[in-house]
Amino acid sequence: MPTVTMIGGGQLARMTHQAAVALGQRLRVLAERPDDPAAQVTPEVVLGAHTDLAALRKAAVGSHALTFDHEHVPTEHLETLVAEGVNVQPPPGALLYAQDKLAMRRKLAELGVPVPPFTAVESAADAIGFGDEHGWPFVLKAVRGGYDGRGVWMIDDRAEAETVVADQLAHGVVLLAEQKVDLKRELSAMVARSPFGQAAAWPVVETVQREGQCAVVIAPAPELPDARSAEATELALRLAKELGVTGAMAVELFETHDGRLLVNELAMRPHNSGHWGMDGAVTGQFEQHLRAVLDYPLGDTSPLAPVTVMANILGAETAPEMTMDERLHHLFARMPHARVHLYGKGERPKRKIGHINILGDDVAEVREQAERAAHWMSHAIWTDGWDPHE
Ligand SMILES: Nc1ncnc2c1ncn2[C@@H]1O[C@H](COP(=O)(O)OP(=O)(O)OP(=O)(O)O)[C@@H](O)[C@H]1O
Ligand SMILES: [Mg+2]
């Protein structure tokens, strides 16, 4: 059976390993530290940095496909690996559009895909000019390397533009500015595509962000008209094909108040907006990603319940005294149907340390349960004051 190498040892690699086990495969990871979430569980760990070509080569030796749990590997290293015969999936020419927000915005604009107005920012004057033309506040972004809202700034006025731009440029950060979209909500259209060209799409989901970070995902997106859902899915399938994407891809979308869909960004790997499918779909994203990068036929993406809600377990400001183990006991006692996924990560404020999936029939009810369960796991507090000893 094949070995797949995943660059990065985070929770996405950990959950991909979990899927690999069921398929009789091995997932080798390139992890920074032995206690990274995936390095704790897979026997094949190469320790090293994703920016180190020697480490990347070592991780790639003998593997059938090399893929990613994040998008931060330098493109030139990937080109080198490809030239040396490594089967990199997605190929670097496609991955670029998940790595570089400016290249992505330009490419999508060229393909006629709706994106917010944007510009490259090389000076504070560029940023101020953009704000004056497209309205304040606007959004300033690091072109590369951001995640979970790190690398995204809402710029209110000229003074803020001056300071933030100067500070980031001084640190060598390449920047872009884009219009702040008056959004109704955020959606994600997830698909997977194989090198052969087969593609499959999951239902379009709603993603709820708090403080720039995904908190909750509702699958399928409630009250999304069929036509808009089809538009989002077709857009994602078209992008996967035109960009030559392989593996799983999430297209993060803004739905505007006037019913338009704009692309926010692309992720070419398993994505937080696909975690619901581990329990809520016939084939989840982790197995699908493996199937896709290995060019197997893809799995059925049908949902298993009318609604699945995923809520992230985020590290609390101060970690509760109650151990995670004890919290889990209490959660299971109250909600035997909750599907829990913990990443083996230490509790730090706002850090994604796990997630909960709940399947059911009623969106409001399922969402309330999922959020209550996740809050319990983060804080050891039941938001409705429930006390097991009463
Ligand atoms: N142009 C915009 N208009 C309004 N809100 C925006 C805009 N761009 C980003 N945001 C908000 O900031 C969040 C994070 O932005 P973005 O997805 O670009 O950053 P990221 O850090 O790469 O994200 P991720 O958490 O997906 O890794 C978005 O999900 C959205 O809530
Ligand atoms: Mg994002």
From TrEMBL:
Gene3D superfamilies cross-referenced by the UniProt entry: 3.40.50.20, ATP-grasp fold, A domain, ATP-grasp fold, B domain
EC number: 6.3.4.18
One of the protein's GO biological processes: 'de novo' IMP biosynthetic process
Enzyme class: ligase
Key words of the record: ATP-binding, Ligase, Nucleotide-binding, Purine biosynthesis
GO terms under cellular component: cytosol
Domain ATP-grasp: 105-294
Binding site for ATP: 101, 141, 178-181, 186, 264-265
Function: Catalyzes the ATP-dependent conversion of 5-aminoimidazole ribonucleotide (AIR) and HCO(3)- to N5-carboxyaminoimidazole ribonucleotide (N5-CAIR).
Quaternary structure and interacting proteins, as annotated: Homodimer.
HAMAP family: PurK
Family: Belongs to the PurK/PurT family.
Protein name per UniProt: N5-carboxyaminoimidazole ribonucleotide synthase
Taxon lineage: Bacteria, Bacillati, Actinomycetota, Actinomycetes, Mycobacteriales
